[in-house]
Amino acid sequence: MQNRYSKEIIPIKGWEREETFRFFSTFTQPFFNVHTEADITPLYQYCKQHGLSISLAYMHATVQAARQVENFLLRIENGQVVRYSGLDLSTTILKDNKQIAFTHFPYHEKLADFCAEGARIIAAVKQSTKLFNGHQGIDLLHMTTLPWFTFRGMEHAFSIGQEDPGVPKIGYGKLEMRGDQVYLPISIGLHHALADGYHMHLFMEELTRVVQRYTL
């Protein structure tokens, strides 16, 4: 499948992660998951003031943060490690018939532009009969939202016995209001051959940085 972003091959021999990569590449289930939360109060307040969708806003913040962490740009293709120059997002959308649709959202630098196109995409997909809508390459983040309840853990479906390209998997739960603060439950799944817990830490730092830009 043709991807939207350019890529470069990272030679495994001599790579700083060579030994780690070769070790975890032998695992039938190489993903590890961490469940935490993000304080998104500034972003939430900004969306309320400007009439923007909070769910689209934290999707946008997620992609912006992931683009700043190199390990979130790494993938495995035909046994090689490649680094993509950018990322878009594919997330689940609940259609009018209460079935899900995996849906591509192109990246936009500006939040307002992302929300405007995102609203158009959601409206169209809700009427769709397709499971997959738009680009579904590996130069994406895979995301889902469970807006009906908070959670303290989440695991994703996977296939055993075939090479997994290592697309990061992010899940969000229902917003939690604690006084004046707004928290978003978040589950992050990464391929251990490509990333460690430290890289999740870097992602969470970037996510906090992005959210803080919207401080009123």
Automatic annotation (TrEMBL):
Pfam families: CAT (PF00302). This is Chloramphenicol acetyltransferase. It comes from Pontibacter amylolyticus.
